[in-house]
Amino acid sequence: MKSVASLFALCLICCLSANAQLCFSPERPQIGQIVSFTYTPSATLAQDSTLEGRFVRYGAPTMMRISQPTTVTLVRQGSNYVGELYIPKKDVAGTMLYFRNSKQPHRIDLNNGQFYVVLVCDSTGRIVPHATGGQASVFSRSHFLNETGIRADPNWVVTLYEHELSMNPDLRPLYWSDHLAALIKQRKPGYGPKVKAAIEAYLASRPTPTVAELADASRLYESMGDFQKVAALRERQKTTDPAGLLMQKDRAIAIRNEADWGRKKATYEAFLKDYPTSAHLPDLAAVMLNSYFKNNDIKGLIAFAEKQPATQTDVMVLNTIANQLAEERRSLPEAEQLIKHALTVLHSQTKPRNAASTWESDKQTRFRQLTNTYARTLDQQKKDTEAFALYQSVVNPDDVENSDPRNTERYFLCALRTNHAAEALPMVEAAIQAGKATPSLKNTLRDWYAKQPGNDPGKAKAYLANLESDIKAEQRDELLQKLINEPAPAFTMTDLQGRTISSSTFKGKVIVLDFWATWCGPCIASFPAMQQAKNQFQDDPNVRFLFVNTREGGPLSRVHAFMEKHPYDFTVPIDGQQRVSKAYKVLGIPTKVVIGPNGRVRYRTIGYSGDPEATVNELALVVELLKEGK
């Protein structure tokens, strides 16, 4: 076997040195030497004049970091090209090289997919360990092939591994799993039993298999679909290394899934004690923070948060919790304490070594979000002067497109309470002009403006209309393109109060149909926005909103219970047999259909964007357009 392997190596070297495509000197290069080569372009590149070489050095599979693609400059000499490669003094067992047109990289010579190879030899002329196995590693483990657009030949990869193992059997611990993975990819008849037998033979040959070897065996079995063996090997891994990654992962999952709050805290503390540097701790900290919040243990939550290292703290989790507390007007002093702690942590967090190029700008965005929440916790406690100063520090009329309409509204309300309306006015006006204002903010601004000296409701209405004129013109142009013109089928339904709701009674009016069901999350999420839209036209007798319950799939009592629980003043016709929804081409819910005064369907939209202001503005504009006869 040794003589066959030696013959293989000798043939490989001789073929490369005598090959008409590539010749190099010295023929048996050693470490620390410069290799000069001459390349005669193949038929593929014979007519190309701008050629370059691309190469990687390689060695043991543990040294894949040296296999970085690099360009080698070629100098033309007649019909040939010459160049040089340096062989470093350590870690390198060979170099794999290909040639391409530098201006058209898809024009390429890969030596039939095997690359041109310069093997490193020792002082006796024998190729060094890893000279062939390292090539297989490049095919199996590196990204070198990605830039060439080819796939490795599994037969050639197996040949390379088997040559290496026959020449250097002591290297089997480094190559055994990659060799067997290559046999699996080769998929020769009978490969499954052969590979499984080889896995078991290798593990049996090791007095105590390492966790890495057990993990490699598990991956091999997984690739062959033998999940019973996979499970058994994972249990062996956990037994071999109780502090290892697999055990940590299982225990982290158990903490996430634990429903009992007391046991959840106890299992987390045990995990922290056993694995104080675990990579799972940041995610588990977020899990525990949310669990403290869900269990209404706010003081415990703060104590837990303040014990966490800055590197394990997700300030946006703290921000979400503090904001939720502020919105619900509960534990407000604790919400303030929590968000102040989040700001302190954010300030202390330094840029990680491998951070994205946007890290600094992302940090500034997080700072603005946290500051807005801090201001919210203060204004909910009536600490208006402090809140206004914080709002003022983060608003930016020049960046209104990225503003949150709700924050702008809170800012203006706080400005009114602290007699700083004039200072807040530029931001509010910019928000309205950009279409980034809530309906209630517009109403608040209009009412405030009407009360200023020399003004009245009429001037206030004109002032607001002027601010909205450009954005509304743009939105009108866009909506005109969305309008449709389809027949509106007649309908008769009964609402929750037992009243008959018939389309015939709405002739000449604009009708908004909102198809929904109690189980539909997006439907329910859109209701606050729909209530706002309805409120805008509550005094207009020529506009009607009907919230058609359809596809309910349950008892009518469920709809009654929902409407009794929620403070919506909706008219709710029941479409129990889905006749109306089918007639109006409802493919999913929520679907909103608007019928014009002429009795034609003019607008249809499905789903909910999650943006209440945009929903209200678009729907209100559609209604206004149809009232105008568009």
Can you describe what's shown?
By secondary structure, the chain is an alpha+beta fold. The chain has helices spanning 2-18, 133-141, 154-167, 172-186, 191-205, 211-223, 227-240, 245-257, 261-274, 281-294, 298-307, 315-328, 332-348, 359-379, 384-394, 405-417, 421-433, 439-450, 457-482, 521-536, 556-565, 579-583, 612-627, and strands at residues 22-25, 34-39, 51-58, 70-72, 75-77, 80-86, 94-101, 108-109, 116-119, 486-487, 492-495, 500-502, 510-516, 543-550, 573-575, 591-595, 600-606. The strands form 3 sheets. It has an 8-stranded mixed β-sheet. Strands 3, 4, 7, 8 and 9 form a 5-stranded antiparallel β-sheet that branches. Strands 1-2-6-5 form a 4-stranded antiparallel β-sheet. Strand 13, helix 20 and strand 14 (543-550) form a beta-alpha-beta unit. The longest helix is centred in the C-terminal third of the chain and has 26 residues, at 457-482. 31% of the residues are buried. Mean pLDDT is 92; it is low at 1-7 and 13-20.
* Termini separation: 89 Å
Beta-strand segment tally: 17
Shape: elongated
What percent of residues adopt helix (DSSP H or I)?
40-55%
* Spatial extent as radius of gyration: 36 Å
Derived from helix and strand composition plus strand pairing, the structural class reads alpha+beta
Number of helices: 23
Q: Bin the strand percentage.
A: 5-15%
Low-confidence stretches: 1-7, 13-20
What would the average pLDDT be, to the nearest integer? Answer: 92
Strand order of the largest sheet: 10-17-16-13-14-15-11-12
Quick one: biggest sheet?
8 strands, mixed
